[in-house]
TrEMBL record:
It comes from Natronospira elongata. GO terms for biological process: L-methylmalonyl-CoA metabolic process. SUPFAM superfamilies: Glyoxalase/Bleomycin resistance protein/Dihydroxybiphenyl dioxygenase. Keywords: Metal-binding. It holds the Pfam family Glyoxalase. One of its GO terms (molecular function) is methylmalonyl-CoA epimerase activity. Transmembrane segments: none annotated. The keyword Metal-binding applies. PROSITE patterns: VOC (PS51819). This is VOC family protein. Residues 6-151 form the VOC domain.
Amino acid sequence: MSHRARFAHVNIVARDWRRLADFYENVFGCLPVGPERDYQGRDLDAGTGLSGARLRGVHLKLPGFDGDAAPTLEIFQYDPSGDDPPRSVNRIGFGHICFQVRDVAAARKSVLANGGSAVGKVVTLSPSPTASVTWCYVKDPEGNILELQRWSPFGFKPR
């Protein structure tokens, strides 16, 4: 049976949710939506399978979408926090979040200037004779992997 679905959000569990939310707001223009979250108690424990947890955070509207139905980046901080295994671009499971940008090199510089770090260099690949993609991987201040990309000639035209 197939269920009609609509994409809603991607979650990042943060060490410091306010600092990470500020990064995504400053670098990519994400906007806070809805109330800040602050949950704890029996229902949170039952829903998460944890015991004695507290969850705080916010949803950020992702850039490039209009209206209330825009997908969000959910940034939550758990107390106590869990493990933080090393991340790499080829690890199994969720890998990265991608942002289309006008200028990949400039966006990379902005990520680095706002506490992020580099993974690789800016490169251009041509998957067909009529299109190319310029991209790079970077990390946000907490080590989550991001891809910055621009396609040509079908390039992204942000407002």
